[in-house]
Design brief:
Layout (H helix, E strand, L loop, with lengths): L9 H13 L3 H32 L14 E11 L2 E11 L17 H12 L4 H12 L5 H8 L2 H10 L6 E14 L4 E13 L4 E9 L4 H13 L9 E4 L3 H10 L5 E3 L1 H9 L4 H15 L4 H15 L4 H8 L2 H4 L9 H11 L3 H14 L8 H19 L12
Parallel strand pairs: 3-6, 6-7
Antiparallel strand pairs: 1-2, 3-4, 4-5
């Protein structure tokens, strides 16, 4: 590192700076600066620890006094990962009794707190534990094993608990509920667990993944416990216009208990998938194309008229397919009864007639979890799901859906 001596006027000083910068490449300049700063940090830390142990002993080095409570016992060397990179061979003074402890870092600490926070932030941004090291190496000049990253991210457990316990504002006008299946290891073998997820759109047009819970199944008991948790934390449903769900019987039964007086909207995507099961491959495209015209209607009355026409066309050939829609027709058309300004009607109805908005979040979950194939325990599931949901919520924070504030 070249030291610049500023002993002339401003023009001369600036010329010396320019000569120094021009004498090295951009990369070498910043590497040199960082290395020198790291060296200064090491010196500062060692001097601070010397001052600490002097105050602890209450006497200078080699000073002979009576009534000593402890003695210096040389140094030991250790390494510490910092924001400026790794500091190696850091001399840490020690006492003979072992009672002296430095306040510069904690015992057994190997990384500065800011480094651990950087690891967690990169993990929350969507980087897998194996790729975190490569992402941070150019900045921190060190590597971390996947197990190290995993141990650091365990600090997220506290944030996960806070996320599950935080108070909810009763400002959601649309609530979407669905679940995703993941594999989790147990003592004997891997089993399937369901992650129940709630997604909402507020009266201010903000979209948010509200909460999630790991459950054994999508039974009524599991869904009811999840919904009761939302209710007890503040989501009373006073502003809810619609709850969008698939055809899960357990979820329907749970809603009858917790949000019995809120209208429900069956997901058209799930419904048409069920209809397709009763169709021949040769007729599938035509039957489904005609069925899609039902939800494209401007009013519920028009949608019923289109359904009757579709029913008369296909009920003899595919009675089960027709019955699949007919038995839930009212709940499939509830979204058409919500008053919306005409210029926003098409866009909003497209968003609230299916659970696609929550399925997009599930795609991100599958992308992150696919390389893992199986989670080691439930805590790791909580951390990953929390990381994904937090990243998506942060991404949506400043991107409200303005059209959802335009109801009549």
């Amino acid at each position: 590192m070249q030291y610049l001596v500023f002993d002339a006027n401003v023009t001369q000083r600036w010329r010396r700076v320019k000569e120094f910068v021009d004498s090295c490449t951009d990369a070498n300049f910043w590497v040199d600066i960082k290395r020198h700063t790291r060296s200064l940090l090491k010196d500062t830390m060692e001097l601070a620890m010397l001052d600490e142990i002097t105050r602890y002993m209450d006497r200078e080095t080699y000073q002979r006094t009576k009534n000593r409570i402890d003695y210096r016992n040389g140094y030991y060397e250790r390494s510490l990962d910092t924001e400026l990179g790794p500091i190696v061979n850091l001399k840490v003074p020690r006492s003979r009794t072992g009672l002296y402890k430095t306040s510069i870092f904690q015992r057994y600490q190997r990384r500065q707190r800011a480094v651990n926070e950087a690891i967690c932030n990169v993990f929350l941004a969507g980087i897998s534990t194996r790729d975190v090291s490569g992402a941070l190496k150019p900045l921190l000049e060190t590597t971390f094993s996947a197990s190290c990253v995993s141990n650091v991210t365990k600090s997220l457990d506290v944030k996960v608990k806070e996320f599950h316990k935080r108070e909810l504002l009763d400002e959601y006008q649309f609530l979407f509920l669905d679940g995703i299946t993941l594999k989790v290891k147990t003592s004997l073998h891997a089993i399937k667990k369901i992650v129940l997820v709630a997604y909402g759109i507020t009266v201010f047009g903000k979209k948010e993944l509200i909460s999630f819970r790991i459950a054994s199944s999508e039974s009524q008991n599991c869904w009811e416990a999840f919904l009761n948790d939302l209710y007890s934390r503040g989501l009373k449903g006073e502003n809810l216009k619609l709850i969008v769900i698939d055809g899960c019987k357990g979820l329907h039964a749970a809603l009858d208990v917790v949000y019995a007086y809120t209208k429900r909207q069956h997901c058209w995507v799930h419904k048409l998938r069920n209809v397709a099961k009763y169709l021949k491959k040769s007729d599938e495209k035509e039957v489904l194309a005609e069925a899609k015209e039902i939800y494209k209607a401007n009013t519920k009355r028009e949608a019923v008229r289109i359904f009757k026409r579709w029913k008369n066309h296909w009920r003899r050939k595919y009675p089960q397919a027709v019955n699949c829609i007919e038995k839930d027709l009212d709940e499939l058309l509830n979204f058409l009864e919500i008053p919306i300004k005409e210029q926003y009607r098409k866009l909003i109805r497209k968003r609230i007639r299916t659970t696609n908005v929550i399925e997009r979040a599930f795609r991100e979950v599958r992308r992150r979890t696919r390389p893992m194939s199986c989670f080691t325990n439930q805590d790791s599931v909580n951390r990953i799901i929390y990381a994904i949901l937090t990243r998506l919520n942060n991404k949506w924070e400043d991107k409200p859906l303005d059209e959802f504030t335009q109801f009549i």
